[in-house]
């Protein structure tokens, strides 16, 4: 083997090529291992993890580093925003998830977002962490019968390698089947370093892989177990800690000595004052002049300083440690003396890119998505969620965006102005900007709309023009949609019909299609913050009015903008059905509203037909097809049935009308 290595060196020296691959004088002691990362982890992984935990317990820089990493990677939690399009269903899912997060920890010490933070800490310290999925019984009283138990890396022995009789292989505690799939984990029953748990030492238990979440950030292809992020910084941190301790101890010892007395003989008398070893002490007091005997001399202690290079040496060493840990210098040392806006922003941008990559490729992909899928499946099976065709539409129901906590601005004013300029220039959307800050755009918009409605109802205004009361709007207009100080005024005037032409519109007709088109335009306009239906109509056609009312309600709920109505002077019959879609209805002093009902008129033209010499003969199929025609007196049975038919029609329309407003009966307001 040695001869082969010598031959390689000679061939490399003759050929040249890469300097890093040569065995020149400067590289003779550079002996890099060719072993696979799994071999290296098995040999040194446990020691590195133990040393990392020691430094975190005893070294301030190490403790600050792991807290900084966990705080930036997780903060208050990486939270889900369900992609379910059905708003009420999405709200139920989100509320159930929120209740379950408080119950997720099997030990009951924190919530799911606290477990995320613990996972980020363990990944930084040991390079990996395990979660065991624990199904629970319905009688346990959980909102969803599921919990997570976190297990540290030491619970899975690195040296457990075995070939099983069924052809499976156990490698570093992980069992693989014949084609390399993970099928189980062989955990220790107790922590190998916990002496407070008697018995069970060294015993292992096989846990199926579907019940285990192995969270790991691999460095190399084929890597099975994690490596501590402290591994490239352990030596420097430990030696720097020793150097600091030695320097501090030296200064402490030197500071104990004030001076030294030289005398020719040991006949010194100081009034019997001695130290703990019986040596005489020279009494000193402030402002004292000491008289010395012949031959005596005092030399005061002048301990050497640490020198001018102490701070620069520490700074350079900590820079190397910060680079090894992947942290900005200020996050490691909490030293902001050399920081300014430019270098702080540059360092944070690079650090945040690393954090975002870690969040999405490790925490979200390996932990959050897996927990979300397991939680939703358990919620469906336990009956806590009723999701139609869950098995067939599982991917649609599991669609979810995970939102990390927002980043704080270095200079809020500059950064927010830049964000607004990017949105206005079309370089990004509000949805994207809000998601980057860790929030869901739909929820933010709904909250803003709710705040505005509450402020308007109380007559408050924060950072915007107050909404004028509807009584100040000119209700005598006859034109189309108008925007008055952010309020879109939508006219609902005259006789209402399902369709109309330009002649009908000029004749005082308003079509449901035109009202819907104007409403869609108003709710989509970012300059509009509320929509007001200006109604002066005695009603119109029943066909299409309820579809229009439901469409108006849907537009208001989707946009989050309030929908109001003012009856000036009439909102009757079909017009009142449209008004019921509004959040609130205002009435002028003499307004008329209501008149929900059905009316039918029968005109008997038979006498006029006889005088005109005309006789009508109806050819029809269906016993009641021509009931109530005008060319004969109204038969008694038909006349008797007419009120019942009218009542049935009225009841049907009222049932369609009542569910439209929310609450069922809009409040009546008069200016």
Structure description:
The longest helix is centred in the middle third of the chain and has 41 residues, at 341-381. The termini are far apart. The protein contains 19 helices and 21 strands. Residues 469-478, 502-506 and 648-671 have low confidence and may be disordered. The radius of gyration is 41 Å and the shape is elongated. The strands form six sheets. Strands 13, 14, 17, 18, 19, 20 and 21 form a seven-stranded mixed beta sheet that branches. It has a five-stranded antiparallel beta sheet with strand order 4-5-6-7-8, with no helix packed on it. 24% of the residues are buried. The chain is α/β, with parallel strands linked by helices. Keywords: Hydrolase, Protease, Serine protease. Residues 557-635 form the Peptidase S49 domain. This is Phage portal protein. InterPro entries: ClpP/crotonase-like_dom_sf (IPR029045), Peptidase_S49 (IPR002142), Phage_lambda_portal (IPR006429), Protein_C (IPR033855).
Low-confidence blocks of residues = 469-478, 502-506, 648-671
**SS-based structural class?**
alpha/beta
Gyration radius, rounded: 41 Å
Q: Helix content range of the residues, please?
A: 40-55%
**How would you sum up the major sheet?**
7 strands, mixed
Q: Average pLDDT value?
A: 81
Instruction: Report the span from N to C terminus.
Output: 101 Å
**Would you count the extended β strands for me?**
21
Pfam families: Peptidase_S49, Phage_portal_2
Family: Belongs to the peptidase S49 family.
Domain Peptidase S49: 557-635
Keywords: Hydrolase, Protease, Serine protease
